[in-house]
């Protein structure tokens, strides 16, 4: 799981320990928080609820949900909502994000815009694609968005003079 120090524990009897242990954030705890965030979704048009829980490097968790708008392109996805909340509170480095929805037959996957938004903050952090039962697939941002463009690409050597001929 990269540099993410998440302890993998399973079982109902360990649930309260997993979610509330002060010294660690678990995969299950992060997924649980994404499922809780989903409950706050505002999605009157699609009825497609999504929640996200983002783990910063200081172990603070930021949650987000999707917020739709009658003007479709003004809606905000849960992942971008959580990241924007973290950035607005001074965080720029992340360990993991868990994404939850109501899909039972497949794991939720972030849209292309969210993949690029996550990539802005690094390619090598964990993304947990979940189902409502808590099962998940772990991927890296780089796997979700291969051959990506990121901030470091802006400092690469460029053509010095670009002709502007019409």
UniProtKB/TrEMBL annotation:
Enzyme Commission number(s) from the entry: 3.5.4.5
Any single GO CC term annotated in Swiss-Prot or TrEMBL for this entry: cytosol
Keyword NADP in record: no
Positions of the CMP/dCMP-type deaminase domain: 25-152
The encoding gene: LOC112254156
Role according to the record: This enzyme scavenges exogenous and endogenous cytidine and 2'-deoxycytidine for UMP synthesis.
Lineage: Eukaryota, Metazoa, Chordata, Craniata, Vertebrata
GO molecular function list: cytidine deaminase activity; identical protein binding; zinc ion binding
Keywords attached to this entry: Hydrolase, Metal-binding, Zinc
Cofactor: Zn(2+)
Leading EC class: hydrolase
Family the UniProt entry places it in: Belongs to the cytidine and deoxycytidylate deaminase family.
A Gene Ontology BP annotation from the UniProt entry: nucleobase-containing small molecule metabolic process
Domain of life: Eukaryota
Annotated source species: Oncorhynchus tshawytscha
Catalytic residue positions: 79 (proton donor)
Binding site for Zn(2+): 77, 111, 114
Catalytic activity: cytidine + H2O + H(+) = uridine + NH4(+); 2'-deoxycytidine + H2O + H(+) = 2'-deoxyuridine + NH4(+)
Protein name stated in the entry: Cytidine deaminase
Keyword Zinc listed: yes
